[in-house]
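Task card 7
Instruction: Convert sequence to structure tokens.
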Amino acid sequence: MDSPLNSDGSRLDAVKPIDRKNLVNRLNYLNFQDKDLLSYFKHKRYKRMLALRVKPRPCAGEKLLCSWEEQFPEGWNPDEYILDHLQLEDGFSTITVVSDTYTLNTDGLSLTLPDQGHELTSRKIQRHACSNIRVQMIQNGRFFKGTLTSFTPESFKVDIDALSKHEISLLNEGAYVSLTVLRDGKILFSDECKIIRYYFLKKKFTCILKPVKNAIQKLSKRKYRGYRVALVPPPNVQFTHPFSGELYNLPVIDLSGSGFSVEEYFNTSVLLPGMIIPKADIVFSHDLKISCKIQVLYRKETEATKHNTVVDVGLCFLDMLPADQVKILALVSKARDKHISLGQGIDTEAFWKFIFESGFIYPEKYLLLQENKNIVKEIYDKIYTKSPSIARYVTYRENGSIYGHLSMLRVYDNTWMIHHHASSKSAAQYAGIAVLDHLSDYIYNAFHLPSMHMDYVMCYYRRENKFPAKIFGGAKKAINNKKGCSEDDFAFLPVPYEKDRIYDETIMPQILESSQDDLLRLEESYAQKSGGILLDALAILPESTQNKEIMDTYEKEGLKRDIRLLSLKQDNRLLAVFVLDVTEIGLNFSELTNSVKLFILEPEYFSPEVLKASLNEISGTYYQGKSHALVYPFSYVEEQNIPYKKRYVLWVTDLSFTDPYLGYVKRFFRLEGDS
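Output:
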């Protein structure tokens, strides 16, 4: 004879008695939690069963009073039924209570509790009830809707919306379905499941589904993983389960900038691969709590204890505030190397001392800044003490002194610029390598978070500087794909403003705001000359955002940022496109963020006189007569014998290629560290 069924159709196995004292405690717990139980009535003549929900009242002995929780079925006559049993479920087991002494009235049910009930264990893993969770299922192109009523990490119980017999016949037991779980229209889970069984119970059509995977792949497969640390004492992760609404608090076993792991006991586990938790808090201390959106990546049994099995669960960050992400990576970096400080505030006096003593600000560069030194100090006080969202920095410190520094600015909508890489001569190369290594890890862990706006990273360097040429030039060779990493050479030249200079109007083209057609022609010209990704990173392609968001962000941070696109035209011919970058003076010590990028499309019609005249007009109108220009292609200034100050390589990488980039950088660091 088959063992009896739970209310969800699962089999009941081991049976053990439960005495009245423990039974009363279970009933009072249900009352305390405002939960109900099922009362089963059997028809005296036809033997059919009817289940009605009742809510137990406080119980102190053998008498139990229950209130009706739902309307009686239409036409139901209590005189035609007898009470068969009460049923309590807690997700693990089912308790049945049989009483021959009871009364019914319009208020509820009153009965005498027996000396003992029976607890029937049915599951190795606890099932949890759900609330207001909808599901969508697709099988062989057919679409079904329903409600998720309960779950475990290994199964879903779904009540399908009313179906005809024909529709039911189309759902194949034992086959696979694509299941999407939603709350208020937002996806909480979406993956393939297998139909284990389905059945009718109380006029409901119910499916039991089993998730197919024990792990998901959130990002493209990556060889490298973020550095993980086990903090002591460990933080806890607190969250409200998106399916059940229950609150959980689990210790974090290890933590990285991209995610963390926790442990659960198998029989009470609630985390299943693919599930999205819209809001969780990682609590480090009473006054340090970080909120984030997370997703379960994997679930695997690791060890068996005397009474239970431990399940290791990995989760990844889907999003969080940028400032909170810095806090997590700062903790990880500090645990990895006590000398590293990531975005944790800098004594600006120590910073300026280091910058000058390391030779990073050499006399020629200082002449660019000295006239506005007080403004520059104010800017860096703001960046290094208030940690604005547009700046990141790493320092290497020993005994209170700075020996290495590297920072990064968000300069376009989805692009960050690495700059100000400096190390003390007394620290040899290790401090410079350390800050670049940790910033690379930061990029690797942060770029996939939408709030970071980090699709590209760019950097200016000069080929005669061996260290950046090895790092960035070597990374380009390692990636070996211009759509993953590209370099373009620019001539950097000062623009001497001549306020009263009058140019021949017959040779002077018009300077106009760039049209979408102008940007399309720029894209075609750049693709032919370079084939790289610079214009994507600058966000100036016709279909791009064109940097509206980044300008608003700088304004909110109390900083200046303006980006304008101008076209130089003559006789309806597009000669060049200017990208005007306007920021606070000294935001970049070489003024690379406060300069004009000039893309020449028609060099044969673009004379040195036109170059000088157009830059003079732009400098006076937008830069108060003080500016620099970055001219592309570099070959133009060589062919025209135009004097220039420096030759910069503008390096850009698409961060979807982080694996080959980081692979090269890590190999380089090992080689340099051994040399």
